[in-house]
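Figure 2 data, in text form.
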Amino acid sequence: MAVQIFTDSTAYIGVAQQEELGIRVIPLSVHFSDEYSKETEVDYDYFYGKIEETGEIPTSSQPTVGDIYEDFKKIVQDGNEVLAIFISSAMSGTYQTAVSVKEQLVKEIPGARIEVVDSRTNCMALGVQVLEAARCIKAGQYIDEAIQAAEMIRERVHFYFVPETLEYLKKGGRIGTASALLGTILKIRPILTVDMKAGMTHLWGKARGTAATVQRMLELLEADARRYGLREIIVHHINAPARAAQLKQQLSGKYRCPITISTIGPVIGLHTGLGTIGVVYTTEAVPTGSA
């Protein structure tokens, strides 16, 4: 009996790692007024270029019940197990849809085992949980051990990011027009994070100017590194590869842990906007007060 790992496209796990660890990705979708694409099929440069050219901020949608049903059914019909780790249930209906599919399939196929885990986050903060579970399975461990491994990483993961512009947050209804206007005039940039208890993005703090705000974000990383140790760092960016490379170089001169770069795709990118830069990192120890 084998265990198949599933996640969704907002984990932004690279294709090479997907293939190496046998991870299957169920895509969310993005919609312009004249165009629809699955996130796994859209060209990022084209997508972000179209936003810049047209000024239109598209919408996103979760996978359908049918999409998840067919993927899960193929696995359990063959007598294998499913472990699916998805974007926070507070951010998307993907998790709940998968739970509904699970309930349907265990009725249809006696003995089927499907486990659906809420990552409580997105991007590579989700991705590191998926990778940890997949490595367990590849090493010959069982599904329960893989779930425990993912949950342990979830307690150690941190995600901070700094938008370059407030326009996307304004259009998405995450900040008011007046706040966006004032922030733009004063060059105030927010530091956003994901609350791993609530599974929602919220404001951690703010500073004047992008450089100062990014520096404040790095101070948060440094404080956690000193207290809890670092396992790895992922530099995230939205259509800002040069800035991401510069940040990676800066971090590589300071920390000995693995440091990689990951591009944030359209589904998450359309909410925070071009130029966003961020860090996902995992600590060696569980931070005090973590849940």
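Caption note: The chain has a mean pLDDT of 91.
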